[in-house]
Amino acid sequence: MTALTPTAPGCPSGLSPVTARDTKTGYAGFVRDVGDEHAIDLVVRGAKCGGCLSKIEKSVSALPGVTQARLNLSSGQMRVRWTGPLAADRIAQTISDLGYGVAAQAADTGAADKAREERSLLISMGVAGFAAANIMLLSVSVWAGTGEMGEATRLTLHALSGAIALPVLLFSGRHFFRSAWAALRNGHANMDVPISLALSLAFGVSVFETLRGGEHAYFDAVVMLCFFLLIGRFLDARLRRQAHAAANALAAMQTSAVTRLTDKGDAVSVAARDVAAGDRILLAPGERAMVDMRIFDGVSDVDESLVTGESLPRTFSPGMTLHAGAINVSAPLRGEALKVVEESLLSQIGEMLEAGEQRRSAYRRIADRAVSIYVPFVHTTAALACLGWLLLGASLPDALMIAAATLIITCPCALALAAPVAQVVAAGRLFRKGVYLRSGDAFERLAEIDHIVFDKTGTLTLGTPKLEGMVLTGQSLALDSPEAKAMLADAASLARVSHHPLSRALVATAGSGAAREGVREIAGCGLEASVDGQTWRLGSANWIGTDKALAAASGPSLWFAQGDAPAVQFRFVDNVQPGAADALNTLRAQGIDLEIVSGDQNGAVASLAGTLGIADWTGEASPQAKVARLETLRDQNHRVLMVGDGLNDAGALSLAHASLAPGAAIDISQSASDAVYSGGLDAIPLILRVARKTRAIMRQNFALAAAYNVIAVPIAVTGHVTPLVAAIAMSLSSIIVTLNAMRLQIEE
Length: 748
Fold this sequence. Notes:
By secondary structure, the protein is an alpha+beta fold. About 50% of the residues lie in helices and about 20% in strands.
């Protein structure tokens, strides 16, 4: 690979045009202090490859005092930290001098640029498609009238085709010309180089032939080639825009307001990024923590499901640490911010997402490998054909015509369609089964899976507790017994005033009824009411006064005490997803190893693993622990599929070789995954089976495209190609790969 120099402008790969270099000043207002360092978040436009990333990061890191310069290719977001007097304007100017657009993140998130690019490609594709349809009408007339049509009529039709093709070439073809020029300027070649050569040479030769009254013109091939390739370019742009949706959603979460307490005790609303370590924070019921904080006042139930995966709220009291992302449920909490938002757990998960996106972007797809062979082959063949005919005594126009014919007949239409058409057909089949694909290369990575890591809550289980049984003085009570029904009705009269998940599950079993008046909810404990001179309590075992050992071993439970009477225990269970056992057995039959890594309690995870026959499991796993486990499996050369639904799974979903999220998962998890499925786990074996078949079809399509070139190239090189032959050959190659891909619709 050609060595990169910090002074060379533009994208080394030429994957996209270089944006304007002008840079606005005034970045000082976007600088914030993080401890002893200064920090700024920028949006870099025009960077699309590893060379861009390396060049930008090295150039910025070389500035005096810079301690961190990290660019995310998927989102275009760059984070810079430094010490000393370095001006933010100089950082931005350094990036701009390399040929990339730059803006402050607060002013430009890059989403508008990506939407603009996608819209431009769509318009260009529409123009090319409309023009191709019209030119083909004229070309068909020329082909049909061969030997009978007058020269003047033929030239008129050629001239009309050229008049239509010229604006299409300039407008729709600019995407390929810009990319090819950027690549050549930096000493590289990409797929757009032979495409640009084919378009330019075919149009130029066609104009020459039209002016001298020749029989053949290739205007139809020019426009059709442009149209077909723009389809793939548009789909790629849309997928790239969706690729960093998870990181953007997480970043938006971190910009929420935080209630900060002043020295006088006044509550002031500030942006999360303005919170410093040591600030006092008020977390009201229903609010999500934006920074990691240590509680110094208040007792409340906190929903940590997005952070830890624990399905039930946990009671927080003074001295405990509450992580960003958790939701306060029942009572106000006051705490001290431990870290700035950039160092919180939410930010760490965001960095995990970025790291996962970078690793996936480095995955070399089948199409990329095919292109690396195709580009030099086409260049060499066309050049040798032109040179050979010149040596044989042919005129320069005739030699160029043969070279153009070679480029056209080896047009990468079939190659360009080989992978996309198979992916579209397979995605359509899965969509009808309730599976939505989010990644263009998902099929290739899913086909390589040999190990699956499952989250527990909401993935293998339904994520909603259900009353399983009742225990009184060590004896189980039948739920349909009169005694159990009476106790359940009394307990439900208290539970109806609470939003706790176990209370809702209790009420769901008891059915409709009246809510008892005078019920008090004590944060972290439970519900209490005075009934006929007795104190009724429904809540935790410790509060009721039950044996702690018995409570710890019983799993999720509520205890109900009526005065001095023995307390009754309501036991709950998170039901397994319907059809989970059959789906897992199918996966085992496919030779795939299964594992559970969950943030839920060890007892609950162990019980579920035993029920489903999964030997490898890990409980009470943090988001970092899940990522670490996936890295270990990757180092062992496993191709891991991660299946999860919570924020605590987002980093692992992004890092995994491939990932799936159920339809009920949070938006961030769905954005971080390759596909979203609805229904039960039986969708997973289907997805993997379709992925393997899709990969096989894509390989067959590339083989068919290669075979087509083997047959067509000798015909082109020997000068026996006419517009009719080229059109038929191009169409047949595209039709063949399309029909082969249609086999994916056949149910197995």
